[in-house]
Every structure is written in C-alpha cells, then in structure tokens.
Amino acid sequence: MDQFLKTHQLSKYFGGVTAVNQLDFTVAQNEIRAVIGPNGAGKTTLLRLIIGELTPSTGEITFNGQRIDGLPSHKIARMGMAKAFQIPQIFPNLSVYDNLWAAAQNGETKLWAGRAWRKQMHERVETVLGQIGLIESAHVEAGDLAHGDQKRLEIGLALGNVPKLLLLDEPTAGLSQNETDAIMQLIESLRGQVTVIMVEHDMRVVMGLADTITVLHFGELLAQGTPDEIRADPNVREVYLSRAS
Amino acid sequence: MMNLSWWRVGGAVLGAIGLALLPYVLPQFWIFFVAQIMVWIILAQSFNLLFGYTGLLSLGQSAYFTLGAYGLALLLRHAELGLPLLLIGGVLAGLIGAAIIGYLAVRVQGHGFIIVTAVPTILLILLGQDQSWLTGGDNGINLTPPKLFGLYSFFKPLTSYYVVLPFFLLMMIFIAWLIRTPLGRAFLLVRENEERASILGYNVLRLKYIAFVIAGGIAGLAGALDALITAYVVPNSASWTISADAIIWTLVGGAGTLLGPIVGTALLLLLREFLSDIWAYGYPLLLGITLLLIVRFAPNGIIGELKSWTSS
C-alpha cells in the first residue's frame, strides 16, 4: 500500500501561529520514515494530529484507507496505531509488566477475561519485554526505572498492542550512545513488519534507519527523499543541517 | 498485579468466618455497632472505587447513599415489597442518581469535578427539607422494616447484623473481582495517566462514567442497608461531611487497596466510640492529629504503607 498514511492539505493553527501548513504527506506501508526539521517545524504537531491528540484546523488524514481526522485518539489507536512520546508517558505506580499488559489489552474493557485471552496477553507482554530488554525489571514499579529504561518502556507501550503504524517522537532523546544503539537495533528489528514514522534529531539515527526522510520547515514540506538525497539537498543544508552541526 | 494468592483468599475466608461468629462473643450493643461499621465500609468502598482505583475525587457519595436510603424507605412506605426488592430499589436509586450526575461530572476536569459532585449533596438536602410530605423534612422518616422471613425483627441487633453481613461480604468480593477484570485494570490506567490510557485505545470518559455509576450503586446499597438497620432516613445524611468521613476513613486505611477502607473505617469508628463517653473533644482532636501524621509519614495509608514495606 503506497498510501498507508496520507494527509491532504493538513493545517493546524494555534491562535495566530501556523504549526502545520497545508501539508500533503504520504507514507507507504512498512517503510521507516524519518521526519526532521528545525525546532518549531511542526514535527511533533504532525504526530499529534495523526493520532488524534489534536484536531486538524483544516485538511484530511487517511489511515489504511479510512478517514481518521476528527476521531478521538482512543478510536484511532484501536485501528492499529500507537505512539511513543518524547517524554515517557508511563503508568508510574504500576509494574513494568502491568504497564505492558495495559498496552496489550489495547483498550479492551470487558468484564470477563478467559484463560485463553489472559495467556495471549501474557505472551504479548513477554514478547515486548524481550524486545525492549526489560525482562529483569518486569516487576519493578515503572516510576522507579532510570530514564533510559523509562524510554524503552515508552516504546514498549507503543509496541504492546501490535500496531500497524508506530509513531515515535524522538525515541533516543536524552539517551547515551549505548542506549541509542539499543533503540536503533529495536527499530531496525521492526523493519518490514510495522510502518514507522519517527521524529528524530540525532542524524546518526535518522540516516541509519530511514528509508525516506521528510524535512519540514515552518510547517511545510521542504524536501523529501532518501538519506543520500537529503544529505545532498542544498535547501536542507541551508535550513537544517548547517544549524544542527 | 494483584494476583489472588492462596494466603489472600485464605485470609478473606478466615475473616468472613470470624465475622459470622463474632455475635456469639459480643454484647448486644457491639453487635449493632459492628453491623453499622460494615455499612460504612461499603460507603467507603464506593469512594475508594472512584478515588483509589480510578483517581476521581468525589465529595458526592453521601448523595447516592441518601438516595439509596430513601429509595428503600419510600418503597417500604408505599409498596408492600419484600426485603430483596427493597434493597434492589435502594441500589437502583443510587445507580440512577449517579448516572445522571456522573454524565455531567466526568466531563469536568480536576477541581471542577469535586465541585460538580458536591453540589448535588446540597441540592438533595434542600430538596429534602422542602418536600417534607415525601421526605419527612428535617425530622426524617421513622421506618418499620418488615420482619426478616416474617420472624426476626430489625429492632434486634442480631437481625441487622446477619442481614448486613452477606451484603458486606458480597460487596467486598464484587470489588475484589471487579478490579481484576480488564475493566477494573482500565480504571487504574485512568488514575495513573489519562493521556497515555487514551493513546492506548481506552475511552477515558466512558471509563470514568462507568466507575461513577457503579460507585453510586455501591453507595446506594450502603444507604439502603443503613435505612434498614437504623429504621430511619433523613435528608441531612446527604451532607458532604458524610462523604468526607468516608474519604478520611479510606485515606487513613489506604486508598486503592481493598483492605484499606475496611481497616480505616473500623479503626476510626472504634476510636470515636471509645472516646465519645470519656473525652468529648477527643475524637476530632485525635482524628486531626492522625490525619496529619498519615499525610506526613504514611501518605499511602496504613495498608498502602504496609504493602510497600513488604514488597521492598
């Protein structure tokens, strides 16, 4: 599917400020897309619009063939979308295991949980625990984890309901080199199984993982292409790469 | 999380047997007193479900308690119904009241929620005082509950005790079960982090509403049982200070635990009872000091602190 996620003339205004401006943005199924751009380019706003945390001012969003703009985020999430926040949004007084269980449960609120269902939940939790490397900490209260581990758990929460589209808002922000490598490996291991849209500042991560890079500037599309194309693009060098270095 | 280990089930069974046998060793006065404690524990659990498990600070549980009491009282007065239907009527009155108020309340965030839950307590009292033909006004209504199985009068403490006990146990089992269902786990997520819960596919508004209505039904049951055993209902029982009592008992015992409201309510009511004859100002003074100490040194309440000691 070439247009697994598509925005059409998408805009978001905050008062007089235009965060996203008439953006046409398309992501193919199972690709890893990086969205980069200087601060204030509208990257985080774009992610929040896609998963319904914010309602678009104008424009349309289509996910997996269905219009989703205007839907509440819990409905969009249940259609197979998940997001990892830049600042970990975990359930601090629950154990790591119960955090991931909450994600695996995927919005389900029934009154009867059969043995088969619970086994399925348990297996999902175990799988994600392995993926994010927190098996040892399964029974630690999430609020007691170190920052790096909270960041892993944050990504684990996004993986827990086996999403089709994974949004990552700066997955490696504030992490050490080793921790960043671990997150990169984790994202790499998802290649071909999940569609990923990743907002990231670390160029090593972006260049190492992305199939395609989208560069935003003042809420508009500045450039789009493979990592090599983006590296060579004079406009991009002008507004972004030169400042970042 | 919260696995039903053998010692918990064993402890609960032992506790239930102990409660069933308790009247054999207690004097008459204390039999009634323990029955009343059990009723208040049910009210405290209603608050606990909202605040302890779902993170919603409600000042309004006394309203649904009073609706439950009047539901039973009015059915008793105007319809010849048996005990089970009377109690169901009380629960329904609480459920319906909470279904109406909750619809508004859960749409308000933060401090506004507290106010929206508190307002109906005042309205109910004013309405009750005004419509005295129905409610008995400030004097309330004295009831004559039907004899249990046509044999046992509710003016005997033993009858009250053995009618309250099964409902008390049922309620504790109900809550223990509820918080282990996928729905109950989802309540915790609302308490912990609404934004995250919503992005994980949980309809936070709907969850809050469900918790609010269930809690209203539980408070309604407490009110109906109270009306039955005291044979008396009065609009002033809707006062937010009754809610505040339930809140304090829950916080001292430990919100968000099943045992907390049981321990907190029993301890503080016993304290009040012992002090009432010997030192008139003793209870409010000691209650104040206890609260300060709890907030300062044991913010998770008695059971909450015990839990974190044993787990670390």
Q: Count every beta strand of chain B, where a strand is a DSSP E run of 2 or more residues.
A: 2
Largest interface summary: A-B, 34 and 23 residues
The quaternary state of the protein chains shown equals: heterodimer
CATH homology superfamily of the largest domain in chain A: P-loop containing nucleotide triphosphate hydrolases
Tell me about the largest β-sheet of chain B: 2 strands, antiparallel
Mean pLDDT of chain A, nearest integer?
93
Helix content of chain A: 25-40%
Order of SSEs of chain A: EEEHEEHEHHHEHEHEEHH
Using the coordinates above, name the CATH class of the largest domain in chain A. Answer: Alpha Beta
Q: Could you name the ranges of chain B where pLDDT drops below 50 across 5 or more consecutive residues?
A: none
Number of contiguous helices of chain A: 9
Quick check: average pLDDT of chain B?
Answer: 92
In whole angstroms, the N-to-C terminal distance of chain A is: 36 Å
Helix and strand content put the structural class of chain A at: alpha/beta
The value of Rg of chain B in angstroms is: 19 Å
Shape of chain A: globular
Helix-strand topology string of chain B: HHHHHHEHHHHEHHHH
How many domain regions of chain A?
2
The proportion of residues in beta strands of chain B is under 5%
Widest sheet of chain A: strand order? 6-7-8-3-9-10
What this model shows, in words?
The complex is a heterodimer of chains A (245) and B (312). Helices cover 38% and strands 24% of the residues of chain A. Chain A is globular, with a radius of gyration of 18 Å. Chain A folds into two domains: 1-80 and 163-245, Rossmann fold, CATH 3.40.50.300; 89-160, no CATH class. The two termini of chain A are 36 Å apart. In chain A, the strands form two sheets. In chain A, strands 6-7-8-3-9-10 form a six-stranded mixed beta sheet, sandwiched between helices. Chain A has a four-stranded antiparallel beta sheet with strand order 2-1-4-5, with helices on one face. The mean pLDDT of chain A is 93. Chain A contains nine helices and ten strands. The longest helix of chain A has 18 residues, at 115-132. By secondary structure, chain B is mainly alpha-helical. Chain B has a domain at 28-238. Chain B has helices at residues 6-21, 28-53, 61-78, 83-105, 111-130, 132-135, 157-178, 182-192, 194-199, 204-230, 240-253, 259-278, 282-297, 301-311; strands at 141-142, 232-233. Chain B has a two-stranded antiparallel sheet. Chain B is globular, with a radius of gyration of 19 Å. The two termini of chain B are 15 Å apart. The chains are: A alpha/beta (245), B mainly alpha (312). The interface between A and B is medium-sized, with 34 and 23 residues.
